[in-house]
Amino acid sequence: MEKCFNENDMLKSVAEIDDGDVQLINQYTTRSFDKNELYVFRLVLCDNDIDRDNEAFSVEALENMGRLFVGKTGIADHNPSAENQSARIFSCQTQRIEGRKTAYGEDYVRLTAKAYIPVNDNTEKLIQLIESGIKKEISVGCRADSVVCSICGKEVRKDGCSHIKGKEYDGKICYHILSDISDAYEWSFVAVPSQREAGVIKNYRYSGTDCNENLMEQLKNGNYNSVNSDNIGVLLDYIRELEEYAGYGRAYEEELRKEYVRYGSMCLDDGNKSDESCFEVLSNTAKKLSLCELEKMAALYRRKAEENIFIAPQLMSYKDVILSNCEDDSHYNI
Predict the structure, then answer these.
(1) Per-residue pLDDT for 123 more than 60?
(2) Which of 5, 36, 49, 157 has a beta carbon 3.0–4.6 Å from 102's, enabling a disulfide?
(3) What pLDDT score was predicted for residue 159?
């Protein structure tokens, strides 16, 4: 089942494992386990981009592998020994990441999975290695019955092909398209995977202010994958809070514009009350000034206006006006 990308991150606590996960996991156990006995993490198994071997899975191949890899165990370095088994996949799905393209221009799609590990003394070290990012990169083992050349479209193993993977032909990179996946053997923790993006999905779970700051920092750095179903609610609350503050800012900016025009008109008025060109010029200019520029210009015009015009408070009496100006006749203007 394919869905648009919604990054679901590594689950770090038993509280984040839901009942549906436990039910799926218990299909593979000989007794019922509860949340406290399980560690669940998410991983990217593979995608449809060109890998280090100049090969790429088709989207159809990813969807087929999503069915085949459910129930498959994870090992290390593709060493197929029973003692080497470390985790088991219990859920898979393909995810289409909106806005991202492959090296050959198609929509980027990846196959993600959920895997579990029983929590005990023997697995404590492995869990720590996963959480610390040491055990991260993933490689899959599967059988592809169809291998097609991206340049000529021939079946490489059946029809033969003269094109070489990794070379350019008329500006196009040659790569082999893998499809018709008939079997999925295992998935492994490896040092260097063929698939560049394959691995345990990094954790982005935050709360409160830390969530806002860390999430916004991730978005500023272009990591749009950091937005997921777990933090979207917090992000929306943060956006609503910012919108409220933005409303206050817009109101303040509008008051500054009025102040700039009012005091500017006082300073630039040539005495012709019927001439409104000064007011219009100031009004148009105010719309183009930044908030910082409005603050500076409004303050400048205010000082200039107060130097030339005494502005009496609305409730000040005529006598108060005279007395307040006795010390300095230059400010006396009635």
Answers:
(1) yes
(2) 49
(3) 85
